Amino acid sequence: MAAQLSLPWRECGEASTDGGRAEVPRPAAPAVPSPAPALLFVRNGRARRYILRVLPDATVRVTIPRHGSRREAEAFVRTRTRWIADRREELDVRRRDTRWRAGQHVWWRGVLCTVEIGSATGAEVTVRCGDLRATSPVREDYRPVLEPLMRACAARELPGRLRALAATHGLDVARVTVRNQRSRWGSCSRDGNIALNWRLLQMPAAVCEYVLLHELMHLRQPNHSSRFWAEVEAVCPDYPRARGWLRSEGLALG
Q1: Fewer CB atoms inside 10 A, N or C side of the chain?
Q2: Residue 187: pLDDT over 70
Q3: DSSP 62-81
């Protein structure tokens, strides 16, 4: 099976108990709104508190810390019903409107660039976003114009970046592909093939590099064990900051 880096940017917010060993949450009176979200309980021995995350399909993932219990986790969910409803509503709004309109800010090469419309030439206008430029008829959504340019840049640049990092760390990559992945940043198969999401070129260089290193370290540890994370930390000591950016800003890349 391929090890993969899932998309925290596709999740919609996070809630947790206070740090340290979690206390038993007090149940709240309100019930989960109808239709009730599906709950996915995951135990994580490294977690120090209960954590809620709303996933792309509106499932609520509940992380149970090492000394926690399913009963306490269910009680914690009941105290956060309003928060869950709000995050699911935000996710639904983002899912419905993915257009890139004139004047909107779009992530590109780590900067929030404005979609700008320039002078008209005949029936067409000039569309700019960062270093990207194209001509297009006037339209409500310029994403179909700009996104292919971004994907072409990613296909040209990302494989070279990955192979350069692989050489630096003495690793061999069999094959690199750049894809329009919807549920992961990248993946690494056991035979050394790495697939990358073109959206990596939208994010800051340091965050992109973390994702590339994350996939490369799967060549040494094809899992997400403590040994794997030790490998990641050795080559990218500031990786928690990159993961934080993905959680806070990544949803805008969808």
Answers
A1: N
A2: yes
A3: EEEPTT--HHHHHHHHHTTH
